[in-house]
């Protein structure tokens, strides 16, 4: 098991299987030293724990938990193309979409669920630039969707994955 996966276990988390695409795309692509994930929705065993708009059917706390699940799914997608999460040098960018009821303005707090998970798991390498965007609706009626861009070590050397 990798040091990153050991850290996940310390946090009481496990890396899920890669969520299969629901349309014509792949979960992640390695290009040079960067991995770009497709948007990850908070599927757990093929189902959404929460569905609907944040501020209506979904509470901000449930949405924040959904963002954490999205981040776990994104890490699984990264692992699927690099083989070992210890190769992660840095999470460069996180883009979070929040299906928002009219008047809901807490998108940054919702996406903190993903950001905080990445920081807890990867330490300093998990600190990143980020955007949190409110949208009308997301695929499968998910409350949150998160994509990440990650720099990885391509020379096979040891990377500063966990601090």
> How does the major sheet shape up?
5 strands, mixed
Number of strands: 5
Any idea how many domains? 1
Give the fraction of residues assigned to helices.
25-40%
Secondary-structure class = alpha+beta
Count of helix runs: 3
Cα separation of the termini: 17 Å
Proportion of residues in β-strands = 15-25%
Mean pLDDT: 94
Uncertain segments are 158-163
Query: In order across it, which strands form the biggest sheet?
Result: 1-2-5-3-4
**CATH architecture field:** 2-Layer Sandwich
CATH domain class: Alpha Beta
Overall, the morphology is globular
- Helix and strand succession? HEEHEHEE
CATH superfamily: RutC-like
Determine Rg (CA atoms, Å): 15 Å
Describe this structure in words.
By secondary structure, the chain is α+β, with helices and mostly antiparallel strands. The chain has a single domain, classed as 60s Ribosomal Protein L30, Chain: A (2-Layer Sandwich). The protein is built from 3 helices and 5 strands, in the order αββαβαββ. It has helices spanning 3-10, 60-82, 107-122, and strands at residues 28-31, 34-37, 88-99, 129-135, 144-152. Strands 1-2-5-3-4 form a 5-stranded mixed β-sheet, covered by helices on one side. α2 (60-82) packs across α3. The two termini are 17 Å apart. Residues 158-163 have low confidence and may be disordered.
């Amino acid at each position: 098991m990798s040091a990153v996966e050991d850290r996940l276990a310390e946090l009481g988390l496990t890396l899920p299987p890669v969520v299969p695409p629901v349309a014509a795309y792949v979960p992640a692509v390695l290009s040079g030293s960067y991995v770009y994930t497709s948007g990850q929705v908070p599927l757990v065993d093929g189902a959404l724990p929460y569905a609907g708009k944040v501020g209506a059917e979904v509470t901000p706390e449930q949405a924040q938990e959904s963002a954490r699940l999205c981040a776990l799914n994104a890490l699984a997608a990264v692992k699927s193309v690099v083989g070992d999460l210890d190769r992660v040098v840095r999470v460069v960018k996180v883009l979070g979409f929040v299906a928002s009821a009219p008047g809901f303005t807490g998108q940054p707090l919702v996406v903190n669920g993903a950001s905080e998970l990445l920081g807890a798991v990867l330490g300093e390498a998990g600190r990143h630039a980020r955007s949190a965007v409110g949208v009308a609706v997301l695929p499968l009626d998910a409350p949150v969707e998160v994509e990440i861009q990650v720099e990885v070590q391509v020379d096979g050397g040891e990377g500063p994955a966990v601090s």
